[in-house]
Amino acid sequence: MKITCIGAGYVGGPTMAVIASNCPEIEVTVADINPLRIAEWNDDTLENLPVFEPGLAEVVAETRGRNLFFTTDVRRAIEQADIIFLSVNTPTKTYGVGKHMAADLKFVELCARQIAEYATSDKIVVEKSTLPVRTAQSIKTILCNNASGVNFQVLSNPEFLAEGTAIQDLMHPDRVLIGGDQTPEGLAAIEVLTSVYAHWVPRERILQTNVWSSELSKLTANAFLAQRISSINAISALCEQTGANVEEISKAIGHDSRIGPKFLKASVGFGGSCFQKDILNLVYLCRQFNLPEVADYWEQVIRMNDYQKHRFSKLIIDSLFNTVSGKKIAFLGWAFKKDTNDTRESAAIYVANELLVDKAEVHVYDPKVKKEQIYADLDYLQKHHRGAMGEADVLTSEEIRQLVIVHESPYEAMGQAHAIAVLTEWDAFKELDWKRVYEGMLKPAFVFDGRNLLCAKEMNAMGFEYKAIGRG
Ligand code: NAD
Ligand code: UGA
Asked: Separation of 117 CA from ligand 2 center, angstroms?
């Protein structure tokens, strides 16, 4: 059997590496139109893989060149495959109909057209990307109207991995979900894909549904997870006003087995490429199906998240005597969570932008994020959110590069700073020599902990003005 995956990103790369590792007799090819990305996946040293994930380099080392291949030759990869995974990006549209809400399906559509054009034998096409419910119908329509004499089955097999724990999640998934047509051909295709996962996933964890349930389950799972974060973040605002401690509340409610302890960590706001995108997509779908009450219900999860990011920047500005103009604010972390180099929709970008608009100097240290990425993130935010910020708030690329300084060392970033903001919960930040940090800062030395990472008692004892999300 030969498997091809179109899209060598955060999902395609790790997922295919894990399939190749568990199914040595299957040849797995990952194809991408981005030659730089493919070159990085093929990098001999394994030090420049485009995705940083604990354990990933080891799996790639084991499989690459054996039964895992990375290529830019999309055509050949399509021709030779029995199963083709679509794992391309599906970002929120930034133009036209559905701007800032709907998923942009142009990459998925292009893949379907390429498959229709190049396929010379029957294929199972698997939606791995997160897609609006009923997208499989569009893919089928494109495939069937453009290919001659070739049969296609379209399955939905959404991915539930979280970044930072991708390898662990893929090796030991809570469940694998496969949706397909409830016809003899559809059921047979479901079985083929099930047999791939059954190499390492217990059969009772492989759930089979119809296509629409599978597509909608993915959006629903992300909406529920994000909703929990917005719920605890809403309570964190109340904690700050009342002297309650949000960490204690999370623990107290998490002990209720019906609520459970996971995803109750109050923070500066959720980031990542998917929660916001997928909920906006869900909201858009609800409006399209004329369900405004349902749309409003889910939209509130995003509003609460925006409020949380804004609340954090405002806390910094208010505490620093109502202006950060000319002040040095050190950012610990830029990635949207620890153990990843991914910065998409990271809260750090939004918080930095608000401080920059108030003319702060932002000094960033992140152990895995590259300088160019940080500038690109801020440029992107300026370009795509300009309307909402008003004319006076516009920053040019040059201004961004003058006001944002990226450091190789955390101590350098924090030296002579007026304040520190913890944006990502990297474990290493707990181990810093905080006494040394205190000595090197301007006084009063403020620390704004957006992740509840540090110990309030210890920080106060050292002399810091320490303020954390959800702690009065
Ligand atoms: P990504 O941007 O990291 O990777 C997508 C890749 O697809 C890019 O390398 C791009 O060059 C390539 N591509 C686009 N069009 C192509 C084409 N026509 N031919 C060949 N290559 C093409 O995206 P990602 O984070 O891997 O996400 C992919 C999908 O998986 C999205 O729908 C996302 O919602 C979903 N998802 C992501 C995660 C996650 O943790 N990142 C988790 C679950 C699901
Ligand atoms: C999330 C889901 O957890 C995955 O199941 C899903 O496959 C993926 O989205 C996707 O569809 O892309 P991911 O975004 O990689 O995974 O990471 P999470 O661990 O879910 O964290 C998302 C954001 O929420 C991060 O910014 C994190 O810091 C924040 N978070 C998470 C909190 O603020 N509090 C929490 O308790 C948990």
From this structure: 37
What amino acid is encoded at 180 in this protein?
Answer: G
* Residues in contact with 76: Cβ distance below 8 Å, sequence separation at least 6, in sequence order: none
Confirm if 84 and 6 have CB atoms less than 8 A apart: yes
* Catalytic residue flag (residue 159): yes
CB distance 6 to ligand 1 below 6 Å: yes
Please give the distance, rounded to the nearest whole angstrom, from the Cα atom of residue 90 to the centre of ligand 1: 7
Q: What pLDDT, on a 0 to 100 scale, did the predictor assign at position 385?
A: 74
Mutate to test the pocket of ligand 2, among 263, 342, 351 (most ligand atoms within 8 A of CB): 263
Residue 371 CB neighbour total at 10 angstroms? 16
Among candidate residues 27, 127, 159, 345, the one labeled active-site is 159
Q: Which atom of ligand 2 is nearest to the CA of 267?
A: 33
The burial class, CB within 10 Å (0-12 / 13-18 / 19+), for 60 is buried
**149 pLDDT tier (thresholds 50, 70, 90):** confident
The ligand with the least distance to the CA atom of 423 is 2
All residues at 6 or more sequence positions from 317 whose CB lies less than 8 Å from its CB, including other chains = 323, 324, 354, 355, 358
Q: What percent of the chain has pLDDT over 90?
A: 94
User: Residue 33, CB half-sphere, CA atoms under 13 Å: how many?
Assistant: 9
pLDDT tens figures, 188-223: 999 999 999 999 999 999 999 999 999 999 999 999
- Alpha carbons 390 and 234: distance in angstroms, whole number: 27
Rounded to an integer, what distance in angstroms lies between the CA atom of residue 97 and that of residue 435? Answer: 54
Token output for 110:
């292009």
Going by DSSP bridges, is the β-strand pair 328-332/206-210 parallel, antiparallel, or unpaired? unpaired
Please report, as a single letter, which amino acid is at residue 358: D
Q: String of b and e for 150-183 (b: at least 16 CB within 10 Å)?
A: bebbbbbbbbbbebbebbebbeebeebbbbbbee
Local structure of 457: helix, strand or coil: helix
Place of tokens 């999300």: 469
CA distance 215 to 91: 16
